Task: structure prediction
Amino acid sequence: MAWYTEPTVEKKTTQKKLWVKCKKCNSHIYESEWIENLNVCPNCNYHGSITSYERINLIFDENSFVELFDNISPKDSLKFNDLKGSYKDKYETAIKKTGISESVVTGYGKINGIPAVVAVMDFRFLGGSLGSGTGEKILQASNYAYDNNLPYIVFSASGGARMQEGALSLMQMAKTCAGVARLNKKNIPYISVLTNPTTGGVSASFAMMGDVNIAEPGALIAFAGRRVIEQTIGEKLPDDFQTSEYLQDHGFVDSIVDRKDMKNYLSNILSYYNR
Result:
């Protein structure tokens, strides 16, 4: 998982971890085993988070990925401040910590020899929130796919829209959907992969528009929060509500694919379109 190197970021010196505790079953797993298993629990198959570059390494053929639009970053158009500081300080800190310019990394490469354009959201960057820069990168990547007749794949991982940008953030829902819808004019496939979590404005826009919608096992996929819905309708919701499995049962997700199988699954779909 190391051929495409993540940007160098400042890291504090900390004691090396020996164990990773699974967030679902609370099992303690050797960190080396956890990493070797692609951040997936070997006991309960819980899919932990991975970075955008780690996912790129998993999906794309070695030395085939070329990053695009990495010059696009957030803009503090509203000069937003709250009790915890300014929005500008928050996203500049996120850039330093993650080494990426926005909550999504975009580019193109080959998946088992098949060329494709990709946008990979990264939850480390302000909770993977959808801001104006995020939407612009997703749109520009879709335009690149359109101009070059290449399939487009988006991996979603988001806590929703970035409210520090107000209406500018919400506008990205329509903008990204327009870019994806434009691909239909050329019959260019758009594949959406939903990972944990995919919520809010992202789930209400481009994440659910795929010609094929795929999800990782157990991913939280939702718009409103569970408690909000229960309080609104006055009923207790099923335990598996808003999971990948629940959405597949109700027709919103076409398939659930383990992380280790995702590359081959995507290449099989793309090979069908390339006939």
About this structure: The mean pLDDT is 94. DSSP finds nine helices and eleven strands in the chain. The CA atoms of residues 169 and 182 lie 21 Å apart.
